[in-house]
Design a protein that fits this description.
By secondary structure, the protein is α+β, with helices and mostly antiparallel strands. The protein has helices at about 1-10, 35-40, 50-60, 75-85, 90-100, 105-110, 115-120, 130-140, 200-220; strands spanning about 20, 25, 145-150, 150-155, 165, 170-175, 185-195. Helix content is about 40%, strand content about 15%. It folds into two domains: about 1-70 and about 145-195, no CATH class; about 80-140 and about 200-220, no CATH class. The two termini are about 20 Å apart. The strands form two sheets. Strands 3, 4, 5, 6 and 7 form a five-stranded antiparallel beta sheet that branches. The protein has a two-stranded antiparallel ribbon with strand order 1-2. The protein is built from nine helices and seven strands; from the N terminus they run αββαααααααβββββα. Pfam families: Ins_P5_2-kin. Its EC number is 2.7.1.158. GO terms for molecular function: ATP binding; inositol-1,3,4,5,6-pentakisphosphate 2-kinase activity. InterPro entries: Ins_P5_2-kin (IPR009286). It catalyses: 1D-myo-inositol 1,3,4,5,6-pentakisphosphate + ATP = 1D-myo-inositol hexakisphosphate + ADP + H(+).
């Protein structure tokens, strides 16, 4: 996870933006020189960019100890990944299901407000419409963003660790990240943002791009090693 964040920091490419006091300091549109990361983030020298990345990993994974690091199910990232996995059909089957639905159902599904209104009962259903809606819900979670705020604080101001949310399963988590090895501590808040409900329109567009890619691979006989080896 830390290697991924380091790579994002070096090459944001529309996937990472860094703000300081509300001002955009680093993005693909205006990249900050890597040599300036630490002096910009920690002008008083109380930490470095590696400390910040470590804290981000711990908070996203729901951990308090770098020596016992693992992704916890209750963490923000764990819940996002769980939501992304509720799709059981994939893009080809989802597109096929959509094309087979009656015209009036297709029209209903094009309304982005329908998915939030349906509620969690869609997760238990197994009919074709429910399978398609679960695909769209998973696609929505694959395109969300996570907003993290990490002000450095004096560790002695927090004699005990705390981690609390505004409400059970709240989308905003607040607390104090664990002390790092030099006693540096961060307060933090984490929010899931940019939840743009996906509709079959997104599915049709994605299907077109997917098939164009398949055609390109077949024409050029492109072969690539798998990203993850078993």
């Amino acid at each position: 996870m830390k290697s991924s964040l380091e790579a994002l920091l070096k090459v944001p490419h529309r996937n990472l933006r860094l703000f300081i006091d509300g001002n955009l300091m680093h993005s693909d549109e205006s990249a900050l020189d890597p040599a300036l990361f630490t002096p910009t983030l920690f002008p008083s020298g109380q930490g470095n960019v590696d400390d910040l990345l470590t804290a981000m990993c711990l908070v996203l994974a729901g951990c308090y100890d770098i020596h016992d690091f693992s992704l916890r199910d209750h963490s923000v990232l764990g819940q996002i990944l769980a939501a992304q996995k509720i799709d059981s059909v994939g893009i080809l089957r989802a597109h096929q299901i959509f094309q087979s639905l009656p015209a009036f159902v297709q029209k209903e599904l094009l309304d982005k407000n329908r998915l939030p209104v349906r509620g969690l009962e869609v997760l238990e259903a197994t009919d074709d419409r429910a399978l398609l809606e679960k695909y769209l819900l998973a696609a929505t979670m694959k395109d969300c963003s996570v907003w993290q705020t990490f002000p450095a604080v004096v560790a002695t101001n927090f004699p005990t660790l705390c981690n609390f949310s505004l409400a059970p399963n709240a989308e905003v988590r607040l607390g104090v990240a664990p002390w790092l090895y030099r006693g540096l501590c961060f307060a933090y808040s984490v929010k899931i943002v940019d939840l743009d409900p996906k509709s079959p329109k997104n599915l049709v567009n994605a299907f077109g791009r997917f098939m164009a890619g398949v055609k390109l691979i077949r024409l050029e006989a492109v072969t690539r090693p798998p990203c993850v080896r078993s």
